[in-house]
Design the sequence.
């Protein structure tokens, strides 16, 4: 389906001499030309997240001359981000991602207006923020925010350009029920079970992959603004890096969808999926007994009589581990139930706290009572070492 230019009729205005030089390669393209470049100049895009996906998307949209870019992010730059989040550099570690992003985008194109929203995108502010932009780009790394971005786009009747990555595979598409396509909930009706889908933190991702997917998100956004080409409504593009292969999956609108279906049950952006916890630390299982890495260090430095279990995978353990920890990958934990002591304290850690929380839950269900989760996992342990 060819979609009319989303930004609407070209607004009054001209390109300055400096802009004509800057965008000359666009102006040579008949499908863009000066009128198309003016559409870009008068368009606005909101990027939810300035991390792995938001970085390349924001850079290319700024370079293309999209006149107004809104950025939503409340995180600080961490050194582990630099392997894939190309908006940020070493000098910005420990500083707000939005400050880093704004500085880089203004360097790329001073003609673009960069608007910063240094907050968590949540059900209380999502509609107010998103309402001011033509198109939404999902650069988030968790399911509650993806549902929230989708629901906001649906109620505001704005296209959502979706993207996701995992290790060597990524996917992207456009969700826009008001244009005749499905919404994100037609593909994924509800939240996956806790721990069933590892996060980028837990599973890892090849650094170049989000560059590919984020660039595709930028491309689909430009097509929407310009009204050119075919917008992939009802089509999910999946890229498998190890096979150097793209494939397309058909997505149909679900008549039973709780949001955009024939008999919707969701009537606002605050719902079960959008208000769920987005981090390991705020996961419902975090209400179980836990211990900080600082407290764990103190225990290990004394007369430690407990058992410390590492539920990561062997390759993760080989990179970094806590001396004395017993490696029992999560998937093999049930095999060890009969060999673990019931009369001693058991402490469980993983990379950041999600898998260990699940392991603690499994142990509690099995009847172990003296079990604690190490919050923050080895990531927090290593940060303390500096």
Sequence:
């Amino acid at each position: 389906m060819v979609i009319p230019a989303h930004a609407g009729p070209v607004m009054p205005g001209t390109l300055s001499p400096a802009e004509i030089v800057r965008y000359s390669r666009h102006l040579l393209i008949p499908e863009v030309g000066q009128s198309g470049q003016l559409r870009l100049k008068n368009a606005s895009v909101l990027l939810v997240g300035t991390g792995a996906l938001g970085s390349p998307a924001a850079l290319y949209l700024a370079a293309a001359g999209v006149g107004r870019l809104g950025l939503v992010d409340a995180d600080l730059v961490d050194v582990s981000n630099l392997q894939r989040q190309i908006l940020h550099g070493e000098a910005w570690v420990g500083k707000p991602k939005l400050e880093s992003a704004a500085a880089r985008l203004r360097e790329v194109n001073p003609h673009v207006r960069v608007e910063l929203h240094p907050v968590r995108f949540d059900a209380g502010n999502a509609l107010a923020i998103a309402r001011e932009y033509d198109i939404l780009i999902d650069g988030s790394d968790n399911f509650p925010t993806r549902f929230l971005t989708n629901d906001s786009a649906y109620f505001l009747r704005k296209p959502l350009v979706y993207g996701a990555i995992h290790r060597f595979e990524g996917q992207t598409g456009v969700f826009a029920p008001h244009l005749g396509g499905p919404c994100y909930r037609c593909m994924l009706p509800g939240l996956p079970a806790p721990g069933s889908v590892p996060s980028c933190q837990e599973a890892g991702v090849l650094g170049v992959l989000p560059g590919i997917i984020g660039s595709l998100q930028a491309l689909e956004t430009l097509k929407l603004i310009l009204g050119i080409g075919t917008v992939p409504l009802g089509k999910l593009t999946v890229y498998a890096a190890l096979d150097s292969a793209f494939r397309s999956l058909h997505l149909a609108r679900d008549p039973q969808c709780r949001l955009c279906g024939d008999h919707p049950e969701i009537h606002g952006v605050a719902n079960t999926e959008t208000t769920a916890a987005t981090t390991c630390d705020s996961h419902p299982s975090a209400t179980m007994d836990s211990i900080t890495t600082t407290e764990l260090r103190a225990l290990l430095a004394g007369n430690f009589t407990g058992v410390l279990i590492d539920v990561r995978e062997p390759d993760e353990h080989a990179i970094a581990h806590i001396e004395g920890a017993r490696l029992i990958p999560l998937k093999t934990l049930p095999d060890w139930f009969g060999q673990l002591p019931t009369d001693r304290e058991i402490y469980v850690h993983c990379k950041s706290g999600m898998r260990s929380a699940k392991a603690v839950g499994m142990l509690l269900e099995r009847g172990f009572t003296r079990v604690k989760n190490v919050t923050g996992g080895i990531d927090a342990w290593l940060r303390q070492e500096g």
The chain has two domains: 17-250, 284-385. Confidence is low (pLDDT under 50) at residues 7-11, 280-286.
